[in-house]
Amino acid sequence: MTALPVPTDRGSAVVTPPLPGVLRLGLVRAGYELRAYARERDAVAFIFLYPVVMLGIFATVFGRDGGTVGPVSFAQYFLPGMVATGVMLSSFQNLATFVAVERDEGALKRLRGTPLPAASYFLGKVGQVLVTALLQTALLIGAAALLWDVPLPSDAGRWLTFAWVFVLGTATGSVCGVAFSSVPRSGRSASAVVVPIVLVLQFISGVFFQYDQLPSWMQNLASVFPLKWMAQGMRSVFLPDGARSMEPSGSWQHGLTAGVLAAWLVAGLVLGGRRFRWLRRDDG
Amino acid sequence: MARDIGSRAVDVVGLHKSYGDKHAVDGVSLHVDTGEVVAVLGPNGAGKTTTVEILEGYRHRDAGEVRVLGTDPQTADRAWRSRVGIVLQSVNDLAEATVEELVRQFAAYYPRPRDVDELIAAVGLEDRRRTRARQLSGGQRRRLDVALGVVGRPELLFLDEPTTGFDPEARRAFWDLVKGLRDGGTTILLTTHYMDEAEQLADRVVVVSAGHVVAEGAPHTLGGRQAHRARVRWLRDGELQEVATDTPTRTVAELTTRFAAEGLDEVPGLQVVRPTLEDVYLGLVGAADAAGAGAGTGDASPVLVGRAGAERTGARR
Q1: pLDDT (tens digit, 9 = 90+) per residue, B142-200?
Q2: Pick from A4, A115, A117: CB nearest B110
Q3: pLDDT in tens, A98-142
Q4: Which of A237, A245, B183, B198 could share a disulfide with B39, CB 3.0–4.6 Å?
């Protein structure tokens, strides 16, 4: 076995190079996270295909006799909700579950013992979520256009709306996911705790139903959470202007959408930053 | 403060830590000098891991003074973490990444990392570099843990129960790896519950039991001269007789003379046994437990009646 010498230059004139930058390490982490994520094949398949499959089922079941929602086909009406739910799966559900598992397995404890800054760890997670959410959304939109003839917007203004709703929604979902990862008591219970919350939100936020036909108390409840606003923002991208009349408020409410998402983003940052645990609960 | 604290690699004075009403660490003081290898030895639940995790900055202490590389680990920053290497108790993370990916990634965290290829070779994982961590054997995983712990060229390395659950061959290979680090000048604080491991690796041993330090010293002086005295045993009228002595040759000569006077050429059942370090250690821990439980039998030196241990020694040789 070869000796592993430690340079004994401490105290001499040799200058220790500076610690690696937070951003650069964030990129290193993002690359690593993406590779590790791609290797969890079952999870990737589920998270990527789930919105496409759901859209297919809804478009087929409800649209079989040429039925429509107002001026648009069922496939077109449900596409925005599926885009929003896909973003939530890739960001919130993914991080709330995987960070809890990493904590449980001791991966976070190991990282805590290195000079890796917490910010770089989180940047890596956000990078991984952004890339996977983008791929997943592209797959969903492509499938909607090719398989169910959903017309896609052609003007830049709508794609700009898409961009900010997507980025803000992904960031909010990621931050809230990391914050929520401290709630499950163990990695094994993480899915059981996270999935029902996601499902309930999907139902009350108009992902699976026509939103304006939900009871108003349900609409009000959904308005507290980000998913409803992401779905509404995406409807403003993929539905014609005429569909605005189907919104309970009669408007796309872009300002309010940005406000609610940003509020959750800040709340998630504050809570997640303050309550984040590197160690398991039973471990100190 | 009683003395100048902080000039050593590790300095701990009067450390206390409780969980509820359990005193996991109850007044531990210890130190590690730069370049030294110190083993903290003790049974499960003795407070070893709690102590070490306070030194690593994972836990907050209730009382006491702690300096690690001159810094209080409770307030440590990234620069401090880049000078300390930590190998935790065995955990099952990292499953979907390969050996090389992991070492390369951890190397990126440090200002002056080791060469990744050299390090993988040094821990004996050259032919496993593209293997995912999940598929490594227990011993290989532990060597990967060490690689990740030392990739940043730490001045001080913590090893928490590095070989628990190893087969003998894997332990020997692992010891060689740690000796390589030691010979390269790394200061090491390791915890273990194996005396032979401490004997192999450590310059100094600190024995901890029930949250206290019960003995400290070089492996061969542990427990004092008394604990290492040879025992001479023989049979008289079918009953086992035993004396502890520093001069067993003389004792045997006296016995020979005495039995010769009775017309016997042989001393019946003659044995000379020396306690192994394991015996000494078990004696120390046993004595601490007995004292802690308030169940002292009046026999102040369990080491000297460590019958089972001594007989095992005889059988081994």
Answers
A1: 889 999 999 999 999 999 988 887 788 888 888 988 898 899 889 999 999 888 888 88
A2: A115
A3: 899 899 888 999 999 999 998 899 889 989 999 999 999 999 999
A4: B198
Q: What are φ and ψ of residue A228, in 5° steps?
A: -55, -40
B73–A contact, CB cutoff 8 A: no
**Angle subtended at Cα A75 by Cα A58 and Cα A172, rounded to the nearest 5 degrees:** 85
Q: Which residue of B has its CA nearest to A8?
A: B185
Tell me which long-range contacts A19-25 makes (C-beta under 8 A, separation of at least 24). Answer: A19/A115, A19/B78, A19/B79, A19/B82, A19/B110, A19/B111, A20/B108, A20/B109, A20/B110, A20/B111, A22/A117, A22/A119, A22/A120, A22/A123, A23/A120, A23/A123, A24/B108, A25/A116, A25/A117, A25/A120, A25/A123, A25/A124, A25/B108, A25/B109
**Half-sphere exposure at residue A171, Cβ-oriented, CA atoms within 13 angstroms:** 17
Q: B305 falls in which pLDDT band (50, 70, 90)?
A: very low
Shortest alpha-carbon distance between residue B153 and chain A (Å): 6
Q: Which amino acid is at A243?
A: A
| ipTM score assigned to the predicted complex | 0.82
Place of tokens 């020979």: B256
Cα separations (Å) of A147 from A27, A59, A71, A75, A210? 36, 10, 19, 10, 21
List the Cα angle B45/B48/B53 in 5-degree steps. Answer: 115
* First-to-final CA distance of chain B: 50
Contact assignment for A1 to B180 by CB distance below 8 Å: yes
Of A7, A24, A110, the CB nearest to B91: A110
Q: Tens of pLDDT along B248-273? A: 999 999 999 999 998 888 899 999 98
Count other Cβ atoms within 10 Å, centred on residue B85. 27
A117 and B105 within 8 Å at the Cβ level: the answer is: no
Full-prediction pTM beyond 0.90?
Answer: no
Least CB–CB distance from B93: residue in A6, A8, A106? A106
Mean residue pLDDT across chain B: 84
Q: How far is A171 from chain B (nearest CA, A)?
A: 25
Q: What is the band of B225 on the pLDDT scale with cuts at 50, 70, 90?
A: low
Strands (E), A30-97: 68-69, 72-73
- Kindly indicate the confidence band of residue B57, based on its pLDDT and cuts at 50, 70 and 90: very high
Q: How far apart are CA A8 and CA B177, in angstroms?
A: 20
Q: How far apart are CA B179 and CA B201, in angstroms?
A: 7
Q: Which of these ranges, A61-65, A219-223, A272-276, has the smallest mean pLDDT?
A: A61-65
Q: What pLDDT sits at residue B299?
A: 37
A36: chain B residues, CB-CB within 8 Å: 96-97
Residues in chain A: 284
Q: Are A249 and A219 in contact (CB under 8 A)?
A: no
B186 contacts chain A (CB < 8 A) = yes
Contacts of B9 in chain A (CB under 8 A): none
Residue B98 DSSP symbol: B
Are A105 and B91 in contact (CB < 8 Å)?
yes
Chain A nearest-CA distance from B163, in A, is 17
